[in-house]
Write a structure and sequence with these properties.
alpha/beta; seven-stranded mixed sheet; 21% strand
Length: 177
Amino acid sequence: METIKEDKEYNYREVVLPTLIPVVPEPGLQKETVERKRGRDIIIAVDHGPNSKHAFDWALVHLARIADTIHLVHAVSSIRDKVVYETSQGLLEKLAVEAFQVAMVRTKANIFEGDAGKVICKEAERLKPAAVVMGTRGRSLIKCVLQGSISEYCFHHCKSAPVIIVPGKEAGDESLI
């Protein structure tokens, strides 16, 4: 089992993505900005829900460019639980393969232990990404006010990057991908 990296506020494990994703060389772009050549870092917060998958698809279609690196962030209650870790690892591997197939972007994935909102904001502070993308849970306004939400927490507390909250896909909407 891999070592668990500990920080002052949370623990995390880096997910080793499948080797079937080829290493993408730096694109040979001419007369482009430095950011375009180097690429941007984009954080996408994911979980096992359909709204999270919709936000992931939205980011690949509308935001990602070839030179970018997608950082998949997934928060769980315990990374020491083997079943939770393996399920989460399977999700991140599937999304990483899809990101390469659809947008030809590099992907890095981490599973974090702790409160999702705090983990996402801490990772955004560390990476200084171009954007943090996440979906909504689909709660009503009253439930959000009473119970709060992760997207609302990140919207108010992530100071180092813009937060893009992708509304949930309605039942009749077509998939972006």
